[in-house]
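Hi again,

Forgot to attach this to my earlier email, sorry! This is the prediction with manganese (II) ion bound. I've pasted everything inline since the attachment limit keeps bouncing my files.
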Amino acid sequence: MNAELHHGLRIDGDRLLRRIEDLAAIGPIDGGGSCRLALTDEDRAGRDLVVTWMRDLGLDVTIDAIGNVIGMRAGRTDGPPTMTGSHIDTVRTGGRYDGNLGVLAGLEVIETLERNGVQTEHPVAVGFFTDEEGARFPPDMLGSLVYVGGMAVEEALDIEGIDGAIVGAELDRIGYRGTSPCPGPSPRAFVELHVEQGPVLEAEGITIGAVTGVQGISWTELTITGQSNHAGTTPMELRHDPGYVAAAVAAHVRDLAVRMNAAGPEGGDRQVGTVGRLELEPNLVNVVAASASMTVDLRNTDEALLQEAEADLARFVAQTAAAEGVTVTERTLARFEPVTFDDRVVDTVADVARRLGHTVKHMPSGAGHDAQMLARVCPTGMVFVPSRDGVSHNPAEHTDPADLVAGADVLLQTMLALDGLSLDGATLQRAGLYSEESDR
Ligand code: HGY
Ligand code: MN
Ligand code: MN
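Structure tokens for the complex follow:
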């Protein structure tokens, strides 16, 4: 891919960094992060702020039936936009860049075009999708999944959260159940800027990740029911202890991932496994638990290996539950196969980054992203920038300002390069090279 650059055009880094701070100040938590769980009052406040910025920029703002918000700027021609975006909902212990960077950099890209009088061939759009995190309402990427037709909006509106709230009622309560229909119109291309949330770029001293795809995700909720009893008087052989089974499953999830990675090619497909939520009832020091509720998050870039991990877990749960005399019900909270992004977009990201003088690495994403849903309906790619110590889903999440700005400039030039490409056919011919004169 030989992407021409729109010479001299750069985003306004101070404006971007200021907006990141302004958004981070909504739902602030100790350590400098934010808590804006999907469809809470904090999420509403964050949404209101970004929508205000979109409208101040003169964008045509639409809100759809699951609360996805898209701001569009007209191009020379009508038709589907070149789109960017991400999410502004956070986990409970969120950092200030996860999702927010992609939305605010997209806004910055459009403001840069506007302020420099650059008119694109196609419309450009920036959006934020509802409930990307899935931490309150599973699955993750809920809004973008509905946007691309992966789940009926009626089903999504009925989803109950971990706190008993219902998606549709919460959308009504915060005033973001929009009128635009789902599925939404497919963009002509989608590219998302995101912090890596892992250690690779920093460890290798590389500034830009040209993301090749997203690993598969499997979320399962286990509800384990046994017999509550006295912690002191109940002989060990008479117990039916959900707390013990939950702990054994959590240990097995770790052992399973370590064993699979040891058996695989060095540095090959990496299996990961996490027990992120574990609740005992009645959760008291001197009571053998009546029940345990837990989640298991398994991921792998290889679908066959991910299925192998799921089957191994299911066998272990069944054996352990039978031996302990407890019952287990399983509920799938999310299940997405690995996704490979479109080479044309991936190579454009890499080429643009090199032309801007940055080091680049092709790499898969360990985290889920809205882009993995948009990849179902249009040529899609992602831009990564480094995360300090690889930390994310943690208030200590940090990316150096220079890297944030570099990522946004790569996003700007990638969107301009994609604007000039004919993406529908197999052959890629340029619709027009960008130079100062011809675009004003
Ligand atoms: O779970 C994920 O990977 C994403 O942060 N929603
Ligand atoms: Mn994210
Ligand atoms: Mn996240």
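The longest helix spans residues 242-263. The domain at 13-214+338-419 is CATH 3.40.630.10 (Aminopeptidase).

That should be everything now.

G.
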